[in-house]
Write a structure and sequence with these properties.
Number of strands: 12
Strand content: over 45%
Number of helices: 3
Strand order of the largest sheet: 1-2-5-4-3-6
Distance between the termini: 28 Å
Shape: elongated
CATH topology of the largest domain: Elongation Factor Tu (Ef-tu), domain 3
CATH class of the largest domain: Mainly Beta
Radius of gyration: 18 Å
Largest sheet: 6 strands, antiparallel, barrel
CATH architecture of the largest domain: Beta Barrel
CATH superfamily of the largest domain: RimM
Number of domains: 2
Length: 164
């Protein structure tokens, strides 16, 4: 897939946790375990070395070697933690990263332009694509073979029966 050089945001620092430099994280991936696959993160141009991460209320708590006190942790509130797209594990057949779908144009099987993927959500029953139509209105559809028969790095093909 394309976008190999584009950074992928995995979490955002929500604030300090305790007095030893730990931070609360808002996660954008599959959970705290996902972060353990990476030893370094870019934090607004600063490199952070992950020491530990554990699941916590609505996110995770992490410690980084460079953050040793509450002030250092609090100073990074709101900072996004990213990794290079190329650092993510390879995908199997039929798998995708949300990051790669966002922004892609959406077409019906006969080539009619519908809009673009504005977001990918998951409320517990599987991924939903939020499509922004050309008139600015949005609708959601399930990311399954019936609603989305195909996708690649260039476009998402949508079953016309699911277009609102």
């Amino acid at each position: 897939m394309a976008h190999a050089d584009r950074p992928v945001t995995l979490a955002a620092i929500a604030g300090a946790h305790g007095v030893r430099g730990e931070v609360r994280l808002k996660l954008f991936g599959e959970g705290a375990d996902t972060l353990r696959a990476f030893s370094h993160f870019d934090a607004g141009g600063r490199r952070l070395t992950l020491q530990s991460v554990r699941p916590a209320n609505q996110g995770a708590v992490a410690s980084f070697a460079e953050l040793t006190d509450r002030n250092a942790a609090e100073a990074l509130r709101g900072t996004l933690l990213t990794v290079p797209r190329a650092a993510l594990p390879p995908l199997g057949p039929g798998e995708y990263y949300h990051h790669d779908l966002i922004g892609l144009p959406c077409l019906t099987a006969d080539g009619k332009a519908v809009g673009h993927v504005a977001a990918v959500e998951n409320f517990g029953a599987g991924d939903l694509l939020e499509i922004e139509k050309r008139d600015g209105k949005r609708f959601m559809l399930p990311m399954n073979a019936q609603a989305v028969p195909a996708w690649d790095e260039g476009a998402v093909t949508i079953n016309p029966l699911f277009v609102e």
